[in-house]
Amino acid sequence: DKLVRCWDMEQNKTIRSYHGHLSGVYDVAIHPTIDVVVTCGRDSSVRIWDIRTKAAIHVLTGHQSTVAAVKTQAADPQIISGSHDSTIRLWDIRVGRATAVLTNHKKSVRDVVLHPTEFSFASGSANSVKVWKFPNGEFMRNFDGVDA
Protein backbone atom coordinates (compact mmCIF):
# COMPACT_ATOMS: atom_id res chain seq x y z
CA ASP A 1 0.00 0.00 0.00
CA LYS A 2 3.11 2.26 -0.35
CA LEU A 3 3.10 2.97 3.39
CA VAL A 4 5.58 2.32 6.15
CA ARG A 5 3.85 1.75 9.45
CA CYS A 6 5.14 1.93 13.01
CA TRP A 7 3.22 -0.40 15.29
CA ASP A 8 2.47 -0.40 19.01
CA MET A 9 3.05 -4.08 19.75
CA GLU A 10 1.11 -4.06 23.04
CA GLN A 11 -2.04 -2.55 21.55
CA ASN A 12 -1.53 -4.11 18.09
CA LYS A 13 -2.24 -0.88 16.23
CA THR A 14 -0.48 1.57 13.96
CA ILE A 15 0.85 4.63 15.79
CA ARG A 16 2.67 6.31 12.86
CA SER A 17 2.57 6.06 9.07
CA TYR A 18 5.21 7.34 6.69
CA HIS A 19 3.77 8.42 3.32
CA GLY A 20 5.81 9.14 0.21
CA HIS A 21 6.79 6.02 -1.71
CA LEU A 22 5.21 5.83 -5.16
CA SER A 23 5.14 2.03 -5.23
CA GLY A 24 5.68 -0.99 -2.98
CA VAL A 25 8.15 -0.79 -0.08
CA TYR A 26 10.78 -3.57 -0.04
CA ASP A 27 12.94 -2.95 3.03
CA VAL A 28 13.14 -0.85 6.20
CA ALA A 29 16.08 -0.06 8.49
CA ILE A 30 16.22 1.90 11.72
CA HIS A 31 19.47 3.78 12.19
CA PRO A 32 21.36 2.61 15.32
CA THR A 33 22.34 6.09 16.59
CA ILE A 34 20.14 8.67 14.85
CA ASP A 35 16.34 8.83 15.17
CA VAL A 36 15.65 8.04 11.52
CA VAL A 37 13.92 5.30 9.58
CA VAL A 38 15.25 4.43 6.13
CA THR A 39 13.04 2.76 3.52
CA CYS A 40 13.39 1.62 -0.09
CA GLY A 41 11.21 0.13 -2.77
CA ARG A 42 9.97 -0.33 -6.30
CA ASP A 43 10.01 3.41 -7.03
CA SER A 44 13.86 3.24 -7.22
CA SER A 45 14.28 5.52 -4.23
CA VAL A 46 15.67 5.40 -0.72
CA ARG A 47 13.83 7.61 1.73
CA ILE A 48 15.00 8.90 5.11
CA TRP A 49 12.31 9.80 7.66
CA ASP A 50 12.42 11.45 11.07
CA ILE A 51 11.18 8.62 13.27
CA ARG A 52 9.20 10.91 15.61
CA THR A 53 7.78 13.68 13.41
CA LYS A 54 7.28 11.49 10.30
CA ALA A 55 8.89 14.26 8.22
CA ALA A 56 10.77 13.23 5.10
CA ILE A 57 14.41 14.25 5.54
CA HIS A 58 15.85 13.08 2.20
CA VAL A 59 14.71 11.27 -0.92
CA LEU A 60 17.82 9.58 -2.28
CA THR A 61 17.66 9.01 -6.03
CA GLY A 62 20.07 7.51 -8.52
CA HIS A 63 19.14 3.85 -8.73
CA GLN A 64 17.56 2.91 -12.06
CA SER A 65 15.37 0.06 -10.79
CA THR A 66 13.79 -1.40 -7.65
CA VAL A 67 15.84 -0.91 -4.50
CA ALA A 68 15.57 -4.27 -2.76
CA ALA A 69 17.74 -3.77 0.33
CA VAL A 70 18.77 -0.99 2.66
CA LYS A 71 21.01 -1.07 5.72
CA THR A 72 22.38 1.61 8.04
CA GLN A 73 25.62 1.88 9.94
CA ALA A 74 26.63 4.42 12.53
CA ALA A 75 30.28 5.06 11.73
CA ASP A 76 29.98 7.79 9.11
CA PRO A 77 26.74 7.90 9.32
CA GLN A 78 26.03 5.91 6.20
CA ILE A 79 23.27 4.08 4.33
CA ILE A 80 23.91 1.15 2.01
CA SER A 81 21.37 0.26 -0.69
CA GLY A 82 21.26 -2.63 -3.16
CA SER A 83 19.19 -2.47 -6.32
CA HIS A 84 17.87 -4.58 -9.17
CA ASP A 85 19.91 -2.25 -11.43
CA SER A 86 22.93 -4.36 -10.26
CA THR A 87 24.46 -1.53 -8.25
CA ILE A 88 25.11 -0.79 -4.61
CA ARG A 89 25.15 2.80 -3.42
CA LEU A 90 26.73 4.18 -0.28
CA TRP A 91 24.93 7.30 0.91
CA ASP A 92 25.97 10.07 3.28
CA ILE A 93 22.95 10.90 5.48
CA ARG A 94 24.21 14.38 6.30
CA VAL A 95 24.21 15.65 2.71
CA GLY A 96 21.68 13.25 1.19
CA ARG A 97 23.73 12.02 -1.75
CA ALA A 98 25.70 8.99 -2.88
CA THR A 99 29.37 8.87 -1.95
CA ALA A 100 30.06 5.70 -3.97
CA VAL A 101 28.39 3.55 -6.63
CA LEU A 102 29.59 -0.06 -6.74
CA THR A 103 29.08 -1.75 -10.10
CA ASN A 104 30.77 -5.16 -9.75
CA HIS A 105 27.54 -7.20 -9.74
CA LYS A 106 26.23 -8.49 -13.08
CA LYS A 107 22.72 -9.30 -11.81
CA SER A 108 20.19 -7.71 -9.46
CA VAL A 109 21.44 -7.09 -5.93
CA ARG A 110 18.92 -8.81 -3.69
CA ASP A 111 20.33 -8.16 -0.22
CA VAL A 112 23.10 -6.52 1.76
CA VAL A 113 24.34 -7.57 5.21
CA LEU A 114 26.78 -5.86 7.58
CA HIS A 115 29.59 -7.83 9.20
CA PRO A 116 29.15 -7.79 13.02
CA THR A 117 32.81 -7.14 13.89
CA GLU A 118 34.69 -6.15 10.71
CA PHE A 119 34.18 -2.76 9.08
CA SER A 120 32.74 -4.48 5.98
CA PHE A 121 29.57 -5.72 4.32
CA ALA A 122 28.48 -8.40 1.86
CA SER A 123 26.06 -8.15 -1.04
CA GLY A 124 24.22 -10.94 -2.78
CA SER A 125 22.81 -11.38 -6.26
CA ALA A 126 21.49 -14.44 -8.09
CA ASN A 127 24.98 -15.60 -9.07
CA SER A 128 27.44 -13.97 -6.67
CA VAL A 129 28.23 -12.85 -3.14
CA LYS A 130 30.76 -10.06 -2.80
CA VAL A 131 32.47 -8.49 0.21
CA TRP A 132 33.22 -4.78 0.46
CA LYS A 133 35.14 -2.60 2.90
CA PHE A 134 33.73 0.53 4.53
CA PRO A 135 33.72 3.49 4.32
CA ASN A 136 34.30 3.81 0.55
CA GLY A 137 33.18 0.40 -0.69
CA GLU A 138 36.52 -1.04 -1.76
CA PHE A 139 36.00 -4.51 -3.25
CA MET A 140 37.59 -7.18 -1.03
CA ARG A 141 36.62 -10.60 -2.43
CA ASN A 142 34.06 -12.90 -4.01
CA PHE A 143 32.63 -16.01 -2.39
CA ASP A 144 33.19 -18.86 -4.82
CA GLY A 145 30.63 -21.52 -5.60
CA VAL A 146 27.54 -19.31 -5.57
CA ASP A 147 25.32 -20.56 -8.38
CA ALA A 148 21.72 -19.75 -7.47
TrEMBL record:
- Tell whether Repeat is among the UniProt keywords: yes
Pfam annotation, one family: WD40
User: Where are the coiled-coil regions?
Assistant: none
**What GO terms fall under cellular component here?**
catalytic step 2 spliceosome; precatalytic spliceosome; Prp19 complex
Alphabetic keyword roster = Repeat, WD repeat
Q: Where are the WD repeats?
A: 18-59, 60-101, 102-142
The highest taxon in the source lineage is Eukaryota
Annotated GO biological processes are: mRNA splicing, via spliceosome
Is Repeat given among the entry's keywords? yes
Entry similarity comment: Belongs to the WD repeat PRL1/PRL2 family.
* PANTHER family, A to Z: PLEIOTROPIC REGULATOR 1, WD40 REPEAT PROTEINPRL1/PRL2-RELATED
Protein name stated in the entry: Pleiotropic regulator 1-like
- Organism this protein belongs to: Hirondellea gigas
